[in-house]
Amino acid sequence: MLLQTLALLQLPLAAVSLAVSAVAATDPRHAPLLSWLERWGTELGPVTLGKSSVGAGYGAFASRDVTEGELLFSVPSTACVGLYDACGDADVGEALARLVVKGQGGATVALAGLLAKEWLCAGESGPRGPYLAMLPWDAAWPPEAEQEQEHCLWWSEAQVDALEGSPAYSDAVGIRDEVALAAKVIKSLIGASVRRAYKERGEPPWAVWRAEDDIERAVRGAFVSILTRSFTQEDGGDEEKRLVPLLDMLQHAAEPNVRHVQVSDGAAEGGGGAEGGGRQRVVVTARRPIAAGEELLNSYDGGELEPATFLTRFGFVPGRGVGEFVDSIREQDKGRLPFGFRIG
After folding, report:
1. pLDDT level of residue 137 (50, 70, 90 thresholds)
2. Domain SET spans what residues (predicted)?
C-alpha cells in the first residue's frame, strides 16, 4: 500500500501562484483539474502534466530546468481527501464514522465509501469532481486517458489463478476478498443516497435498479486509488490516510528526483484561494537539479517491497512488464507436483 509518511517540518513557503497561462497551455484533459486546484490555493511551479514516459498513465514533467530545492508545487490540506472528509459528509458521515470507531480497517472503508458516493452522486460536477474524474474508476477509466490500469482488483479469476505459487497470489486473493466485503458494507450505507441522486437527475428506472452494481464497481475503483495513491499524513498529532492531488500522479522510481514534506501553512491566517488555504500544505521540491522535460518521480516504497507485493498493491512490477512477471511465475510452476511437492 502506498503509505509514504510525510514528515512535519517547519519550512518557509515560497509561494508561486498558479498562473492562468499554465492552465491554458495544458492538455485540455488536465485543465479542469488544475483550475479546481487553483480555487483551493494550490501553488504550481515549473510543472506540466502529460502521458508518462516511464510508466502507465499520466505523469508530471519539469517545464524548464529546475534547481535543487526549488518548489515544484504545494497542495493545501483542504484540497486533499481524507478521513475527516468522510466523517463530515452530510448524508453518511455519521455512519462512516461508526466504521472508523470499530477499527480493523474501518478508516480505509470509510474513505472508500466517501469516494464512491461522491463519484456516483455528483460525478465531475461534484465538489471534488475534477479530481475524482482523474482517478481510475475501472480498468479503462478515464476515457482516452491511457491509464492502462492493471490492478488485481480489476482482474478475472483466471488472471488471479495464474499467480498461484507466488506470494502475489495470497495477497491478491486477500485484497479482493477484503474489498468484496467492504463493498457489501458500503452498499448498505450509501445506497439510499446514490439512488436518490439518480432519481433527482432523471436517470431511467433501470439505472436506479442497478445502483448497487454501480456501487460495487465504484468501491473497487476507490480502493484502487487508495491502495495506489494514498499517503499517510499527520493532522493534529493523529495519522490519517489521504489522497494528495498532483503528488499522486507522480510515477515511481527507486531513486526519486523530488521530495515532499508537510508544512505549516501561513495562508491559514489570511486564506489562500477561493475556498481557503487550510492549516497545512504538502510541499514538493526538487531533490536534485532536474532538466527541462524530465519526468518528476517519487519513491512509492523506499526500496522495501518485493516485486509480488508491488504487483498486487500498485498494479505493476518495477522494471518488468506484468505479463513477463506472470510468465516467470508460470515457468516456476512447471516443476510443481500435486499437494505442493516440487521437482528438484
Report:
1. confident
2. 45-301
Report helix, strand or coil for 52.
coil
Q: How far is CA 176 from CA 106, 172, 180, 300, in A?
A: 16, 6, 6, 21
Return the C-alpha cell found at 153: 482488483
Report the side by side order of strands in the sheet with 238-243. 81-82, 238-243, 230-235
Confidence of residue 241 (pLDDT cuts 50, 70, 90): confident
- Name 15's Cβ contacts closer than 8 Å, sequence gap at least 6: 43
Q: Report the distance separating Cα 111 and Cα 85, nearest Å.
A: 8
pLDDT band of residue 286 (cuts 50, 70, 90) is: very high
Phi/psi at 209 (nearest 5 deg)? Answer: -65, -35
* Helix, strand, coil percent content, the chain, rounded in steps of 5: 45, 15, 40
Evaluated on CA atoms 180, 183, 188, 194, the torsion sign reads negative
Closest of 187, 30, 29 to residue 120, by C-alpha: 187
- In DSSP terms, 66 is beta-bridged to 290
Is domain 8-78+249-290 classified as CATH 2.170.270? yes
Dist CA 239 CA 256 (whole Å): 24
**Residue 337 pLDDT greater than 50, yes or no:** no
Q: To which H or E segment does residue 71 belong?
A: strand 71-76
The owner of cell 501561513 is 266
pTM: 0.81
CATH 2.170.270 domain residues, the chain:
8-78+249-290
pLDDT digits over 21-38, tens only? 343 355 678 899 999 999
Residue keyed to cell 433527482 = 200
